[in-house]
Design brief:
Shape: elongated
Strand content: 15-25%
Number of helices: 15
Structural class: alpha+beta
Distance between the termini: 20 Å
Helix content: 25-40%
Strand order of the largest sheet: 9-14-15-16-17-18-7-19-20
């Protein structure tokens, strides 16, 4: 019986670069309390593996595609037929991503904050709770590199009309600058940033007759009037709000008058020949002379750009009004670095856990933080420069979000051969109003799109687990078009196709959705009555935290779970009657030796062989045939 120090089947190579071997200890099945349904019972059932030192990125990618996730060096997979809250792996193809209106609004709000047009809104800091990760920075050989805000701007969106509306918004902003320079305004005014929006057909019906040709509208005059009123209140220490509102009206800073003056400025800008611009009760409306929205032709676009640049150049050359200085822009940086302990990150993590998750200080330690978010079994793979590995390499990373040099958020991600897998994000509670979770998810998707040119196989964004009956998970399906992993056949199925099935049952063989035609219900896999979920009304409908709920809860559940051996349950030996029970080629590790089980089974006693083979059958079932023959299974 000859052993070998490295099995050919346990090493992964691409482009001639050996990536090492994967080594795991089998923790078998475990029961624990559920962090999702809060049922109070030990209904969460998972299979666990411990990978303290070595796990190749290729093997972990394949484990993800069989429903696994990691918390530090602990790997876990829900026993989907038995666990109280079946958790489906969810992903989307970055190049197909279509942002929703809400997601675009989050991006624009963040940009307004960077432009200085939006300040800290402390009244909502405790209302908006968000989370998720990176987008556009990379590290070479462990060194951190930053990317400026412009490279990640959503002004490069593929939607032509969105770009045009952003351009109209810039034109209104230029008019606001001219207006504020020519008017006597309070010195502490916060100048808002304009947002031009399309008028829906439903709203057109509610407008006065003759407004059917209205295409776009902007309500920035109301925001500017409110900003002036707030500034006046601050300067009138002994007067009340009513007198301030009266003063606003007397000085002409009401929305109707402001809108009319802004339109006067806009009417002097060439390049919008296909639109009429009018002020109506404080709104700035754009009407199409042709009855339809028509985008400017190339020449008109060039004229618009020239006029905008000329206006901005004129503004910059004018002597600044000391009472109305332009808002200060903020510097935004994204830094990507290899996973490692950072005391500044840890301090931010403590603030986040205390404020957002209401943890007690005794539950937050440096050791638990390291175990959860710093330790990783993934073998780092440096860039090869041949188009198979991105510039940052493959492995575990921390993405740092900095505003004016201050760390405001940290995303923990795994960058793998086919995807960026989002694991966790924590952020400064003082910046909750920016919805950093939603924003960071958009940035991660953009990062994948940008890095496809460096690594063609890197195409997907993994959001972790999705639980349809859990309100805390619903937001993940808003990143469209997404796919869910079938828990039986391990194929990817469009979320929209299987949503009707999940509306009926919590555990579904998703690939059966192909049987659903013309709205007819397809056969559903039977779920025992005691597996129905308990709903908790305390769960928010749309949290911003990507993976906050799953991995945070999993870390807690794992620490509280027992080592109770459930293997006496004979029903767990196989997920179907046709399960392949041949374990002869499973790769076994004994000390420094690597060999197939068939090479050592005769050296094991009959009773010991029966027990071990039962364990190997379960292990093979959860990792699959190919991985069981490639990953080193350590005998204990």
């Amino acid at each position: 019986m000859a052993g070998k120090t490295m099995s050919d089947a346990s090493s992964s190579t691409i482009g001639g670069a050996e990536r090492g071997e994967s080594v795991v200890y089998d923790c078998r099945r475990r029961k624990s309390s559920c962090g999702y349904c809060k049922s109070g019972s030990r209904g969460s059932i998972t299979h666990g593996l411990w990978a303290p030192d070595n796990l190749t990125v290729d093997d972990y990618q394949d484990l993800l595609d069989r429903g696994w996730r990691r918390s530090g060096c602990y790997l876990y997979k829900p026993e989907m037929e038995k666990t109280c809250c079946p958790s489906y792996t969810i992903r989307l193809k970055a190049s197909d991503f279509a942002p929703s209106k809400d997601q675009l609004r989050v991006s624009r709000r963040f940009q307004r904050f960077l432009d200085g047009a939006l300040e800290h809104d402390k009244s909502v800091e405790q209302v908006e709770i968000s989370s998720t990760s990176e987008g556009g920075s990379h590290a070479l050989n462990g060194e951190s590199h930053s990317v400026g805000k412009n490279s990640m701007s959503f002004k490069n969106e593929e939607n032509e009309e969105d770009r045009f509306m952003l351009h109209l918004s810039d034109m209104v902003d230029d008019s606001i600058r001219l207006y504020t320079k020519s008017s006597v305004l309070p010195g502490s005014i916060q100048i808002p940033k304009a947002s031009v929006k399309r008028v829906s057909h439903a709203k057109k019906k509610l407008l006065v007759q003759g407004s059917k040709d209205i295409i776009y509208t902007c309500n920035v005059a109301f925001q500017l009037s409110a900003s002036i009123r707030r500034a006046q209140v601050g300067e009138m220490k002994n007067d009340n709000l009513a007198s301030s509102e009266s003063n606003t009206a007397e000085t002409g800073f009401i929305p109707k008058i402001i809108a009319e003056k802004l339109v006067n400025h806009l009417s002097q800008v060439d390049g919008l020949s296909s639109f009429s611009i009018k002020a109506c009760n404080g709104h700035i409306n754009f009407y199409s002379d042709e009855g339809e929205a028509s985008f400017p032709k190339s020449a008109e676009k060039a004229n618009i750009s020239q006029e905008t640049a000329k206006a901005r150049s004129t503004d910059s050359s004018m002597e600044k009004n000391p009472k109305c200085s332009l808002p200060k822009r903020r510097k935004f940086e994204l830094r990507l670095k290899r996973s490692s302990f950072d005391p500044v990150e840890y301090a931010l993590y403590r603030r986040y856990q205390l404020a957002v998750h209401n943890d007690t200080p005794d539950r937050i330690s440096e050791a638990s933080y390291r175990n959860f978010l710093v330790d990783t079994p993934l073998n780092f793979v440096p860039s090869t420069g041949d188009g198979t590995v991105p510039p940052c390499g493959f492995g575990s990373f921390h993405q740092q979000y900095l505003i004016d040099g201050k760390l405001v958020a940290v995303g923990v991600v795994d960058i793998l051969p086919r995807c960026l897998s989002s694991k966790y994000l924590f952020w400064d509670p003082a910046y909750a109003f920016l919805s950093l979770g939603k924003y960071s998810a958009l940035q991660e998707i953009e990062w994948v799109k940008q890095n496809q040119m460096h690594c063609a196989s890197l195409q997907y964004y993994y959001l972790g687990y999705y639980i349809h009956n859990c309100g805390k998970m619903r937001y993940k399906a808003t990143y469209r078009p997404s796919e869910l992993l079938c828990p039986l056949r391990y194929t990817w199925v469009p979320f929209d196709a299987v949503k009707p099935l999940l509306d009926q049952k919590s555990y579904v063989v998703l690939s059966d959705s192909s049987l659903q035609q013309n709205g007819e219900s397809s056969p559903l896999t039977k779920v025992p009555n005691d597996m129905e979920l308990e709903h908790n009304a305390d769960f928010p409908e749309e949290p911003d935290d990507v993976n906050m709920d799953e991995d945070g809860e999993m870390a807690e559940a794992y620490s509280d779970s027992s080592d109770e051996d459930l293997d006496s349950d004979s029903n767990g030996l196989a997920s179907s009657d046709t399960e392949d029970r041949d374990v002869t080629n499973i790769l076994i590790g004994i000390g420094d030796s690597r060999m197939r089980y068939k090479d050592i089974q005769q050296a094991i006693s009959s009773s010991g062989r029966s027990y071990l083979e039962n364990q190997l059958i379960r292990y093979k079932r959860v990792v699959g045939k190919e991985l069981s023959e490639r990953i080193v299974y350590i005998l204990r």
